[in-house]
Amino acid sequence: MQPKFIKQFMPLTELVPLLKELSYSDKLLLLHLLVGELLKESGLVLLNEQGKVASQGLHDSFEAAAVLAKALAEEKVATHG
Predict the structure, then answer these.
(1) Which residues of 3-31 are buried (b: 16+ CB within 10 A; e: fewer)?
(2) What CA–CA distance (Å, rounded) separates 51 from 72?
(3) How many helices (DSSP H) and strands (DSSP E) are in the chain?
(4) How far apart are alpha carbons 15 and 48 in whole angstroms?
(5) Is 0.70 topped by the overall pTM?
(6) How many structural domains compose the chain?
(7) Which of 5, 61, 78, 80: CA 20 to 30 A from 30?
(8) Residues 32 and 5 reside in one and the same domain
(9) Do 56 and 75 have their domain in common?
(10) For 75, phi and psi rounded to 5 degrees?
(11) Domain extent at residue 74
C-alpha cells in the first residue's frame, strides 16, 4: 500500500528511479526522514528525542560494549572454568 502523498504526486514506479539519482548524503537524509516518520506512525520515539534514555536502562555504545564484554567473559569462565 502506497502512502497517500505518493499517490497524489507521483507513482512509486516513477519515484524510485529519481531516488536512485540522489547523492549519498541526500539518501541518508531521506532515510533519516523516513525512519522518523515510521517511528512516529508506530508510536515510538527516537532515542535522542526521549530525554529519558538513562531511566529506560539503555546504554550508549561504549557502555553497551563494556556490558557485553563482561557478560562474554563471565560466560567463558562459567563454560570453560
Answers:
(1) eeeeeeeeeeeeeeeeeeeeeeeeeeeee
(2) 30
(3) 5, 0
(4) 30
(5) no
(6) 2
(7) 61
(8) yes
(9) yes
(10) -65, -40
(11) 51-81
Are 33 and 22 in contact by the 8 Å Cβ rule? The answer is no
* Secondary structure class of 58 (helix, strand, coil): coil
Q: What are the pLDDT digits (tens) for 11-20?
A: 889 989 999 9
Q: Work out the pLDDT band at 4, boundaries 50, 70, 90.
A: low
pLDDT in tens, 21-76: 999 999 999 998 898 888 888 887 666 665 554 444 555 677 778 888 888 888 88
Domain match, 4 and 36 both: yes
Helix H or strand E segment including 65: helix 61-80
> 45 and 39 in contact (C-beta within 8 Å)?
yes
